[in-house]
Amino acid sequence: MPPESPAPTVVVAAALYDTDERLLAARRSAPPELAGRWELPGGKVEPGETPERALVRELREELGIEAEPLARVPGEWPLKAGYVLRVWRCHLRSGAPRPLQDHDELRWLTADEVWSVDWLDQDVPAVKEVLRDRD
Length: 135
Ligand SMILES: Nc1nc2c([nH]c(=O)n2[C@H]2C[C@H](O)[C@@H](COP(=O)(O)OP(=O)(O)OP(=O)(O)O)O2)c(=O)[nH]1
Fold this sequence. Notes:
It is a single chain. By secondary structure, the protein is an alpha+beta fold. The chain has one domain (9-134): Nucleoside Triphosphate Pyrophosphohydrolase (Alpha-Beta Complex), CATH 3.90.79.10. It is 18% helix and 38% strand. It has helices at 51-63, 124-134; strands spanning 9-16, 23-28, 38-39, 42-44, 66-78, 83-94, 103-109. A hairpin with a 4-residue loop joins strand 5 (66-78) and strand 6. The longest helix has 13 residues, at 51-63. The chain is globular. Bound molecules: 8-OXO-2'-deoxyguanosine-5'-triphosphate. 8-OXO-2'-deoxyguanosine-5'-triphosphate binds at residues 11, 13, 34, 39-40, 42-44, 58, 79, 83, 85, 102, 120, 122-123. The site of 8-OXO-2'-deoxyguanosine-5'-triphosphate (8DG) has 16 residues, from strand 1, strand 4 and strand 6. Its cofactor is Mg(2+). Keywords: DNA damage, DNA repair, DNA replication, Hydrolase, Magnesium, Metal-binding, Mutator protein.
């Protein structure tokens, strides 16, 4: 039998909507191989942290907002080796998102605009599920 691989690092990300039901997308500014591509904002869960708390922390650090994770979007998507992406539908409690860290542009996308940005390849199936989850 092959040796068991260690548990993957979980990257948590937000499906965050504004009052017009537009979805927030963020353009990465780093690292170079990901810069310019769009993603759902979030980051890595730290040891001892719950995914929901990690998401609240990341959204505060990266966007300057207070958000509340509501429900997990079904599914899990592989990223680079050793990393998986999980997504939560979130409620924006306060603040207006600004690209404070890791991003150089944010965009609120209507349903018609969702595919107008160049999502990271690995985010495409996650975004499709986010859209299904919203319906
Ligand atoms: N946040 C986020 N990261 C993603 C997505 N898709 C994707 O491949 N990634 C990758 C980019 C990074 O290699 C990794 C997440 O790292 P990060 O840089 O956002 O996380 P972090 O804030 O905890 O980073 P760090 O400073 O501790 O390195 O997952 C996505 O939709 N959202």
